[in-house]
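Case study.
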Amino acid sequence: MNIMMLLEMASSGFGDRVAIGTGDDALTYQELFDNAGRAATRFAESGVDHVGLIDISSPALPVVLFGAGWAGVPYVPMNYRLDTGTLLGLAERISPATAVCHPDQVALADGIDGISAETRTDFVAGLADAEPYHEAWGMDGEDIAVLLFTSGTTGEPKAAVLRHKHLVSYILGSVEFMGAGEDEAILVSVPPYHVAGLASLLSSIFAGRRIVQLPQFDADAWIDLAIAEQVTNAMVVPTMLSRVVDRLDERRLSIPSLRALSYGGGKMPLPIIERALELLPGTNFVNAYGLTETSSTLALLGPDDHRTALASDDPEVRARLGSVGRPLPSVEISIRDDRGNEVPAGGHGEVWARGEQISGEYVGKGSRLTADGWFPTNDGGWIDAEGYVFVTGRMDDVIIRGGENISPGEIEDVITSHPAVMDAAAIGVADQQWGEVIAVVAVPDHGATVEADVLIDLVRSQLRGSKVPEHVVFRDELPYNETGKLLRRVLRDEYAHLGDGSS
Amino acid sequence: MPELKMGGKLASTVCTTEVIVVKAPGGDVDLTCGGAPMVDPTAAGEATSSPAEGAAEGTLLGKRYVNDDESLEVLCTKPGDGSLGVGGVALELKEAKPLPASD
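After joint prediction, the assembly is written out as follows.
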């Protein structure tokens, strides 16, 4: 298996359709295939171990991805906005490599021993002189297709290994070939180094859906581009949706062409989803749950699930709006206790997943899969009686108060259910008596105010006494990284003074 | 008879059809196209004969084909004039059950 097989099918099935871009920058599937072949020649000739990308999105992105796949060289997209030290550290790890770069980073990358860097413009211009690659792509699915540095919200970034078999299995398990109509276009605003940015390229190409890229996310630019390009599909992370919803509301706009909007990549506060559903009444919503190590989506909450949950008076059904839905047909999900035993429906534990798309492997650290193929995700969660999966957050973020494990997620859900609260994070702060106590950092809705005591009473009325926060503080917004992951570490540092310094 | 394994690619010897195996049952499977056994693509060469009568319905690019109990599923990566079968029984076109796009 090789991801090139997906592109070859697309180019022979609908080669004249536009694959990516608009106007002069547009590439048809046939042109994309031909360019990938020329890129493969250049990558193969350079004799490198990796092909790096230190750039924002552009139509060159799939050319680099597929060209590397064809040449049999792993592709490594990196975050070009990282501070110089971190970026140097990552880039050094892939040497010897060739790197396609943003103009701002080309000098930095080229200065690293073993890395030969060029700007995207030079790379694209150089393709015109290159011959089509004379060799067929390898069909060994064990070959490494992509290395993705995981976001490292908790420490040193790890390089997740995605082999051709993982990515191809993901696409064959979740996308119908040429499933998109000729008028369909997807707006991609997640960056190239995010697994959803990678997966959206592969999914859209196999489905035959034109890709429109927004390289630097800005809510107004996103809305304007969606309208101008008659975009039918889009994928956003929570922070993006939150800003889009605000701007749609303020500009009194809707996006009539938008048929489907999927969101994922972090916990989405319910009030934002509810507002989005109101502002985009003609749009189907999909919540997708997945990780870098699982080649993107493991489970999804589909449009019908959203409608049913929203219309229901049954609290259990309504609560599913906050779930990640059910596993893909090609994926199994199970909840395990700390000894790896399966927890029955309704019980809390760690989310484990199994399927052909799951890698669970890191460079230099080997595979985290169990002997029978299960991947412990390090996410906490539970499954309801109907099989809906609820993800409560990273296991590392669990607050341990007096020996009891408390998921920040359930406290955050209660806090954000208050109409005056827009967003919230629950963190543990050190305490001599309890080990940790709960502090809530809440973001009031625009112009709204609420007393800390009101929120404390709200939690007390809905959850056990041990889950009632000791402290509630307010701020204008929570710290998220660029791809919408809440930086709890930053909050824990910033509010450490609320504790009594016992740790 | 090549061993069928997931991700394995097979080619017809009587037309241009190529498939990859998406799901395979354990044990040997006699997968045919146009009535003739399918082989490793590197061994296929140019087709010298045509699909047998009754096995010439053709294959369609990107479509999935399954056996009776769906223990075998293949995806057509190159279309051709022959049709797919196992042990003389034609494979059936699998009905698409598209999932909502998630990325």
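Observations recorded in class. The CA atoms of residues 307 and 321 of chain A lie 9 Å apart. Chain A touches chain B at residues 1, 5, 8-9, 12-13, 139, 141, 165, 168-169, 172, 174-179, 186, 196, 199-200, 203, 207, 209, 233, 235, 260, 262, 264, 284, 286, 288, 290, 296-297, 300, 302-303, 328-329, 356 (CB under 8 Å). We will return to this complex in the next lecture.
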